[in-house]
Write a structure and sequence with these properties.
The complex is a heterotrimer of chains A (773), B (448) and C (243).
Chain A: H1 5-22, H2 29-40, E1 44-50, E2 59-65, E3 68-74, H3 87-90, H4 92-96, E4 106-108, E5 117-119, H5 122-138, E6 145-149, H6 156-167, E7 172-174, H7 185-191, E8 197-199, E9 206-210, H8 214-217, H9 221-232, E10 240-244, H10 250-254, E11 257-259, H11 266-279, H12 285-291, E12 292-293, H13 295-305, H14 308-315, H15 319-329, E13 340-343, H16 354-367, E14 377-380, H17 395-402, H18 411-420, E15 432-436, H19 440-443, H20 447-454, E16 460-463, E17 477-478, E18 489-491, E19 499-505, H21 517-528, H22 530-535, H23 541-555, E20 559-560, E21 567-568, H24 575-585, E22 588-591, E23 593-594, E24 601-602, H25 613-633, E25 646-651, H26 665-669, E26 682-685, H27 687-692, E27 700-705, E28 709-716, E29 724-728, E30 766-772
Parallel strand pairs in A: 6-7, 6-15, 9-10, 9-13, 10-11, 12-24, 15-16, 16-17, 25-29, 26-28
Antiparallel strand pairs in A: 1-2, 2-3, 4-5, 4-17, 8-14, 14-23, 18-19, 19-22, 20-21, 20-22, 25-30, 27-28, 27-30
Helix pairs in contact in A: 5-21, 6-21, 7-16, 11-14, 11-15, 11-16, 14-15, 16-25, 18-20
Chain B: H1 2-6, H2 8-18, H3 24-48, H4 63-87, H5 97-118, H6 127-130, H7 137-157, H8 161-170, H9 175-184, H10 191-224, H11 236-262, H12 271-302, H13 305-315, H14 320-339, H15 346-373, H16 389-412, H17 418-439
Helix pairs in contact in B: 3-16, 4-5, 4-10, 4-11, 4-15, 5-7, 5-16, 7-10, 8-9, 10-11, 11-12, 11-15, 12-14, 13-14, 14-15
Chain C: E1 15-20, H1 29-37, H2 45-49, E2 58-66, E3 69-77, H3 86-90, E4 96-98, E5 104-106, H4 116-120, E6 127-128, H5 133-136, E7 157-158, H6 164-176, H7 189-193, E8 199-203, H8 210-215, E9 220-221, E10 233-236
Parallel strand pairs in C: 1-10
Antiparallel strand pairs in C: 1-8, 2-3, 4-5, 6-7, 9-10
The chains are: A alpha/beta (773), B mainly alpha (448), C alpha+beta (243).
């Protein structure tokens, strides 16, 4: 067919008519232009922050498209993580965009704990809190306001303690199982240090980790993993890594040697190692002579009491293994030899005698002479942040602060004080309770009931949690904090080998409706007026950070990370320039190892307790062992519930990020890598024990203790010491969100006992019974 | 026209076409509702995703693929058996060829359907044509099965033309008569037409055999072309073909027994048919056992770790029920029944056939699932599989559809070839005698 | 004759990955990094327990022995990006194929979901969308979807693509600047976020690249090398431990 002009015209006309009819279905040209614009002109932006999914302080970069955060990854310039990021950090966008996150203040409706809330405005909420605090102050009851803080980071801690000091309450307490920015009590006793010690693992010759799950849940897991990566590929063949842990953790699996010690006997093992070193003259004599006090007493007692034969009985580790560890750990005196380190941070605590166990472990560092050496135990020079200005205090503040605090880092004492209220001699009832990053109803041994009972008489309970968590459900007022990507975020990591770092970043994203709690407190101070307002003169938390950073600039120390290499602080023309660079590059770092030996190392420090600590440790463990043996003897399948033959040791995997990270399905799904078990909690049992109890892998079982009973699936894991069972900590929230409630919280089983000296909860002292459900 | 009515014998063959038996509609209703249930289950799966089944990672194939292999296997019953018997001029074949051929056409469609049920994106199945690439065994399957379906439909139709002509002549005027008129293609039974018909049937019979063999061979190739343990086996093609013939004959026997009862075909399907087919079935039983033995012994003797994981999973692992069920159903029971003359009755062969059908289904299942559950990647947890109601409904629906197809077919066409039976009645004595004379010793040399 | 793992296969780029199992700390960051980058939906508990979760990168544990002689090894397993992939051969619709730079591609919108490639893959690293997992995510959570990566509907197979969208971006940038891709310019998400820096990625055809160098290491091995699949994910074995 020939196509004529006429055909074309007619065809065109028909098409035009058709197009007109289709109009409405098809976007017109203007719409298309907008669409095209949407498709092509994305606003891509990168912003920095510091990850708050744990205490590690990793620098992160957030990629934003049109205001949505679409990716989070490690900041390659950041000195802590050098680009790496762990599963928790990577999943944090699920927390940011969690449909269950609270973004408006809520007031309880009806009875406390009924779970019914109504939204109120930020203005009303602020007025309510300010009004109550003002009244308390006027009534001379400023000290009865109590704020419990948890595992949060940055200068907020200083800000809050300043607020409460200016207001007049001595009861600003922090509940943390690990306080990475404070030295362990044992280190303070032995070295007299005031900042935390650090371990230069990457350059070490032998790493002897007691319980410390370095690669998963150590104080800075990403940094430690990076160090592990380096120590493995070192030219000299790398360090020997030994992990002492009743459970084969991921760290133990990756170690050269796993020492499955009986729970709670790490200290005995450490002193048995010391025994071999002393007996075989394998310790660093020069170092001991120059820097160590109390050596003779220590030597005599250890040689007298801690023979490998005795230790083998108590710890369950063969004598030969103990000797081998000691011989490998001990220095040989070869020139240029790298030091060996012994560490136990976050490890054997919670089980047995916390303080003495840590003293025993740390003693090994003195014997191997590893203190203050590259590759050994080091101390960083703290970042020279500007000090807080002088604190103005008026009369009511002084009166309030004259009262003794209800407790001092001791949850046991606090619980008792809260329950006793007026009735105890030095006690007083609490009139207002503030919970920030704290979820005691979940994290306390004994669990919800214990906590709910303790707070039932407090007239005002305020939670700052952005999730309706276990404790917030019992609150009268919830003032949701912003997500950490929506607020100024800073961190000054202080437990890193040899260097100090400080990061500060403005909000990466606009707040979804929550208010950063530190901003709320600045606001509150302004509302309270007077000296409280004077004590907190900053407009925003960003101003607080700028104030602190001025110290760094003034000290002219360290450098700001930069793609072209670290830029020394001295190279900046003005503070403004420095402050800008800090915010856009991620971190200031100062590679200046401090000396952990400001005073001689004391092997026989004056610690609480009547007996010499070396003697007391053995006596305590021996009696515990006797009790354990009695319990283990009743370990038969037919036994009636009420006997508790298995020792329970809880653990955390690297996908558990506290209450605020509990509702992230990616983390639930990837809960453990050694078993590839997701979503639920589980209990790890040695396959032989399981066989005796007729339990198969993935069978549901009841785990019961004197306190409670939970049902979960059994996992047969040969990396479990017979007679011990392990339950991961993290699942089983009541509240928080739709995904956080899966599984069971082992705290329901836990005894609430605390170490008398370090105030750490002794979570290892729980015995359980297992039976097939 | 009147010839048929006069002959009481053959009247029974068309009675079901012109008179509805009392059980007919209730049976259609029951089967229809099962099909509808299956369809409903499919819609459920279609909209919510294959996650509604019990399939998972790594057991990505389950009931649907098992049924696919099973039904395609059954299809060998028909056309292949009928073609072989026709070509070898086996006299007793006459009343059973049609029954067998109908099975083929029905189950081929259902088998093919099962593969569509298994697709994650059935809406894109035409991509098989748009983007189809012949490197993939699935394309071989598609080609082979559609060819076989076409060929066996033609092969079913051609010998049926004289019967359709009979129906055309019997049918009162109306749409139905037109239907038969069209399909009869003007058959008048002239010698020329007879000659053409016989030649066409013979050609189709020859063609259909290699196609049928290819069908089950390429079905096996879907598995054996992968590297997976206990799939990657050169014996798989013939093994599947042997299994197909085995299950096909078993299905044929069961269908014959049912049709004999419900359509009163006792005169046509006699114990001798069951006896002969029973013997054939015994041969196939032994054939299948031989193949199975060879397959498993090779795997066991080679002792390759990945193969052995699958082997033990079948032997005494989580799939042992299937493996030993298969051995009992496919070997012990049929051999006992079929090798003893006294047991090779209609009832006996039907019992043996039923266990064989179960056994062969298990065989397909035990080939598909344990290998997937124990992939070479042994570090991953072993897979498990249990179907949900969706798969059960669709499996029931598949069998119901098969029965329904038969019921509908019986309403339109005679289940036993009138033409062939009549031909047999009229000429078989002569044909048989002539054949025997040809090779009987003492008759002298007859030049072909 | 056994060829070294870094063997030159073709001219042009040939992307490969080296995973040092000695450095790997088994943390699983690679899994989540991949999920964030590639819009991999989480699956709810029910589907998880039925083994339907999708994890393009998977840290696979292997525990051997009995107490106290126990050993657990971790092996991160992405798609092995075979040079001779068993999965691409069997695809009936050309939805999975080996691209010229050695990446085994998956065309989501063409895949018919027959799962033959999953059955054929000896590594079990192809994943199927059993449900519309993406749609099951709460609306709020769709906000973090990476706009560079398409979302997958139910019924299709998906797998690790070596973050192919990043290669596209890098190529565009290079073309814009009228230059070749620089070494180290194209990185993948698991590598970027690995805390212990155990994952290396680059051009195996470039003799100066780190991956090519590491691939010739004596510790280098490939998973199921005996199958002749010629994977381009190369592992460095854990060193013998001190006794």
């Amino acid at each position: 067919m020939k196509i004529s002009r006429r055909h074309l015209l007619v065809g065109g006309g028909t098409m035009a008519a058709g197009m007109t009819l289709l109009k409405g279905l098809v976007p017109d040209s203007a719409d298309s232009a907008t669409l095209l614009d949407d498709w092509t002109n994305h606003q891509e932006e990168w912003s920095l922050s510091v990850c708050q999914q744990c205490v590690g302080g990793c620098g992160v970069m957030v990629r934003q498209m049109d205001g949505r955060a679409v990716r989070i990854e490690g900041n390659p310039l950041h000195p802590v993580n050098q680009g790496g990021l762990c599963p928790k950090g990577l999943a944090s966008l699920q927390g940011l965009y969690d449909p269950d996150r609270l973004t408006t203040p809520l007031r309880a409706k009806g009875k406390r704990g009924s779970g019914e809330f109504e939204p109120i405005s930020w203005k009303d909420a602020a007025a309510l809190v300010a009004g109550r605090l003002k009244t308390l102050r006027q009534e001379g009851k400023a000290h009865t306001a109590l704020m419990l803080g948890g595992q949060f980071r940055g200068q907020r801690h200083g800000l809050f303690s300043r607020f409460w000091s200016a207001y007049g309450s001595p009861n600003y307490l922090r509940l943390r199982c690990v306080a990475p920015d404070e030295p362990a009590a044992a280190h303070a006793f032995m070295n007299g240090v005031s900042s935390p010690l650090a371990y230069d693992l990457a350059e070490s010759r032998y790493v002897l980790a007691f319980g410390c799950n370095l690669l998963e849940t150590g104080p800075a897991p990403v940094h430690q993993a990076a160090q592990f990566g380096r120590l493995r590929v070192r030219q000299d063949g790398g360090a020997h890594v030994t992990v002492v842990d009743p459970r084969m953790s991921v760290s133990a699996a990756k170690a050269d040697l796993w020492v499955p010690v009986r729970p709670g006997t790490d200290g005995v093992l450490a002193l048995a190692i010391a025994h071999v070193m002393l007996k075989e003259n394998r310790y660093d004599k020069a170092f001991v002579a120059a820097h160590v006090q109390g050596f003779e007493r220590f030597r005599q007692q250890v040689l007298a009491q801690y023979s490998p034969a005795i230790a083998a009985q108590i710890t369950g580790i063969p004598e030969d293994t103990i000797r081998k560890i000691a011989q490998d750990f001990a220095p040989t005196g070869r020139p240029g030899e790298k030091p060996a380190v012994a560490l136990g941070e976050r490890g054997p605590a919670y089980s047995g005698d916390d303080l003495r166990t840590r003293l025993a472990i740390h003693a090994l560092n003195a014997l191997s002479g590893s203190l203050g050496k590259a590759g050994g135990v080091v101390l960083q020079t703290p970042a020279p942040l500007a000090p807080w200005p002088a604190l103005p205090q008026d009369a009511p503040a002084k009166t309030g602060l004259s009262h003794p605090p209800l407790a001092n880092r001791d949850m046991g004492a606090l619980l008792a004080a809260l329950k006793a209220g007026k009735s105890s001699a030095k006690g007083y009832p609490v009139n207002a309770l503030f919970l920030y990053y704290a979820n005691p109803a979940f994290s306390l041994g004994g669990g919800r009931e214990e906590w709910n009972q303790a707070i039932q008489n407090i007239p005002l309970v305020v939670s700052f949690s952005p999730w309706l968590d276990d404790s917030a459900r019992q609150a009268d007022l919830i003032l949701p904090d912003a997500h950490w990507l929506e607020r100024w975020q800073d961190d000054s990591v202080s437990h890193l080998p040899g260097f100090a770092s400080f990061s500060a970043a403005p909000p990466a994203l606009p707040a979804a409706g929550g208010l950063p709690t530190e901003e709320f407190f600045l606001e509150l101070a302004r509302a309270l007026g007077g000296t409280t307002a004077q004590a907190l003169p900053w407009k925003t938390y960003g101003d607080v950070l700028a104030h602190k950073a001025q110290g760094l600039y003034g000290a002219k120390r360290g450098a700001v990370t930069d793609p072209k290499g670290p830029r020394p602080v001295g190279a900046f023309g003005s503070f403004a320039e420095f402050w800008k660079a800090l915010q856009t590059r991620g971190a200031w770092a100062d590679n200046r190892p401090g000396n952990p030996l400001a005073r001689p190392f004391n092997l026989s420090p004056d610690v609480p307790g009547k007996e010499y600590w070396v003697n007391a440790l053995l006596a305590g463990r021996q009696s515990a062992l006797g009790a354990a043996e009695t319990k283990a003897k009743t370990n038969t399948p037919s036994e009636a519930p009420g006997n508790f033959p298995f020792q329970l040791v809880t653990f955390k995997t690297n996908t558990r990020s506290g209450t605020r990270g509990a509702n992230q399905p990616w983390l639930q799904q990837n809960a453990s890598h050694h078993l590839r078990q997701g979503w639920d909690g589980w209990v790890e049992i040695n396959p032989d024990d399981a066989q005796r109890l007729d339990i198969d892998d993935q069978d549901p079982v009841w785990v019961s203790s004197a306190r409670g009973k939970i049902r979960m699936n059994a996992r047969l894991y040969p990396g479990t010491r017979p007679g011990v069972v392990h339950i991961p900590y993290g699942p089983g929230h009541q509240g928080v969100g739709r995904w956080a409630q899966e599984g069971e919280n082992p705290n329901q089983l836990m005894a609430t006992t605390f170490d008398p000296h370090t105030r750490q909860p002794l979570w290892g002292d729980t015995w359980v019974h297992i039976e097939r459900a | 026209m009147t010839e048929i009515q006069k002959n009481e014998h053959d009247a029974v063959l068309i009675r079901s076409i012109f008179q509805t038996p009392s059980w007919y509609w209730p049976a259609v209703a029951v089967l229809g509702s099962l099909v509808v249930l299956g369809f409903g289950a499919y819609l459920f799966q279609f909209f919510l995703g294959l996650g509604e089944t019990g399939l998972n990672q790594p057991v990505t194939w389950g009931f649907y693929i098992t049924n696919f292999v099973f039904f395609i296997g059954i299809s060998h019953a028909g056309t292949l058996i009928s073609a072989i018997l026709r070509l070898s001029q086996t006299e007793w074949r006459r009343p059973i060829t049609r029954i067998a051929e109908v099975i083929t056409v029905a189950v081929l469609g259902i088998g093919g359907m099962n593969i569509l049920l298994d697709l994650g994106r059935p809406d894109r199945m035409l991509n098989m044509i748009y983007y189809g690439r012949y490197q993939s065994p699935l394309l071989w399957d598609m080609t082979s099965i559609t060819t076989y379906l076409t060929a066996s439909s033609v092969y079913l139709f051609i010998p049926m033309i004289p019967d359709i002509a009979i129906l055309r002549d019997l049918c009162p005027p109306g749409p139905r008569k037109v239907f038969y008129q069209v399909l009869a293609l003007g058959w008048q039974g002239t010698p020329r037409q007879e000659k053409v018909l016989n030649r066409a049937t013979a050609i189709m019979a020859i063609m259909v055999i290699p196609i049928a063999v290819s069908v089950h061979t390429v079905v096996a190739f879907v598995f054996s072309m992968t590297l997976q343990p206990m799939w990657h086996s050169s014996i798989f093609g013939p093994y599947f073909v042997a299994g197909a013939l085995f299950s096909g004959v078993a299905m044929l026997l069961i269908v014959m027994a049912i049709l004999r009862k419900v359509f009163h075909l006792e005169d046509y399907l006699q114990p001798i048919h069951f006896n002969y087919l029973g013997l054939l079935l015994l041969v196939f039983t032994l054939f299948w056992t031989y193949f199975t033995f060879a397959e498993y012994l090779t795997a066991f003797y080679g002792n390759e770790p990945d193969e052995m994981r699958v082997f033990w999973a079948k032997w005494d692992g989580p799939w042992a029920w299937g493996f030993w069920g298969m051995v009992i159903c496919n070997f012990f029971i049929p051999v006992i029944i079929l090798s003893i003359n006294r047991f090779r009755t209609i009832t006996g062969t039907v019992i043996a056939s039923s266990t064989i059908l179960i056994g062969m289904w298990l065989e397909r299942f035990i080939i598909v699932v344990p290998t997937l559950a124990n992939p070479r990647q042994h570090r991953l947890p072993t897979g498990s599989y249990w179907p949900t109601w969706v798969e059960f409904s669709l499996m029931t629906g598949s069998f119901a559809l098969f029965a329904l197809f038969y019921l509908v077919f019986s309403r339109f066409f005679p289940l036993v070839s009138i033409h062939e039976v009549r031909e047999g009645r009229e000429h078989s004595d002569d044909i048989a005698l002539e054949r025997i004379h040809r090779y009987r010793i003492g008759n002298g040399y007859i030049k072909e | 004759m056994e060829q070294p793992h870094g063997e030159k296969k073709s001219t042009g780029h040939r992307w490969g990955m080296v995973i040092d199992l000695d450095k790997c700390s088994g943390c699983g960051a690679c899994e989540v990094a991949c999920m964030v980058e590639n819009n991999i939906p989480f699956v709810e508990k029910g589907d998880y327990q039925r083994s339907r979760s999708i994890s393009w990168m998977k840290v696979v544990p292997e525990t051997e022995g009995t107490f106290p002689e126990v050993r657990t090894k971790f092996m991160p397993q992405p798609c092995m990006q075979c040079d001779n992939p068993p999965c691409t051969k069997v695809c009936p619709v050309h939805a999975t194929y080996l691209n010229p730079e050695g990446i085994v591609a998956q065309v989501y919108w063409r895949c018919i979901g027959c799962r033959l490639c999953m059955a054929a893959c000896p590594y079990t690293v192809k994943y199927f969308n059993w449900h519309n997992f993406q749609q099951a995510q709460p609306a709020a959570m769709t906000q973090y979807a990476n706009p560079d990566v398409s979302l997958r509907d139910k019924g299709v197979v998906e797998k690790c693509t070596f973050c192919h969208h990043r290669l596209m971006k890098v190529k565009d940038q290079a073309r814009l600047e009228n230059r070749e891709i620089r070494p180290g310019e194209y990185t993948v998400a698991c590598q970027d976020n690995c805390p212990s820096k155990a994952i290396f990625f680059g051009d195996l055809n470039d003799p100066h690249s780190e991956v090519a160098r590491l691939a010739d290491n004596l510790r280098a091995f490939r998973l199921m090398d005996e199958l002749g699949t010629q994977p381009k994910v190369i592992y460095l074995a854990e060193r013998k431990r001190h006794d």
